Amino acid sequence: MQEIGFDILGDLNLSPNDSFNWENKQTSLYCILTGNISSNVRTIAQTLIHLSKIYQGVFYVPGMLEYESADSVPERLQQLIEIAQAIPNVCMLHQHVAVIDGVAITGINGWSNVGNNHTIENILETVARHEDTYYLRTSISKLQRHLDVKKIIVVSNAVPHADLYFKENPGYIEDQTPLCDVLDADTEHKVSHWLFGTYDKPVDTYLGNINYMNNPRPVNAPYWPKRLTILI
Length: 232
Description:
The protein is an alpha/beta fold. The chain has one domain (3-231): Purple Acid Phosphatase, chain A, domain 2. The chain is built from three helices and eleven strands; from the N terminus they run ββαβαβββαβββββ. The chain has helices spanning 41-52, 73-85, 120-143; strands at 3-9, 30-33, 57-60, 90-92, 96-100, 103-108, 151-156, 191-196, 204-207, 210-213, 226-231. A six-stranded mixed β-sheet has the order 5-6-7-8-10-9, with helices on one face. The longest helix is centred in the middle third of the chain and has 24 residues, at 120-143.
């Protein structure tokens, strides 16, 4: 049996003046970033470069925060893709699948704060959420037939189920179809973990047979990776 480890990081919420040093904190060869690094593009790039020197692989899903300062969501997404492509060891997980030693990692943003507000911005985000959901369902379905894939890790910036807010549900949750509804495509039960961002309290719990985990950076407190170990 083979063991594969990942360090989970997320919701760093860095400003350009923040210091972020991850040297000697890593516990694994790989890390997974669940989004919300910063709204500042230069800070995002610097953080990814820093982590790429520490890990053999950095798997990154952009969060809502990355789009806060953007004039256009598609333009910012393309900018983030180009940044990730230019940095060795960094893999952009936006609607993408990476496979390591039998473990598939697939990721989306998920657009967490989409509600029943009919502004142009909200409508565009609702469309983006539906596109992400469709991609994730299709991706999980295709991976069922992939003989080399034994387990699947799903990564989203959005919280996949209202129960993971532990009764602190934001108002917009009532207007959303839970992202985890895509799991009906997991017919071979390959999805073992769902990593997510956005929620500011640490979570490591099971809903059904799936382990849901996050690792938000606390304010004014030490921050460490949360290790995820997969046995193949």
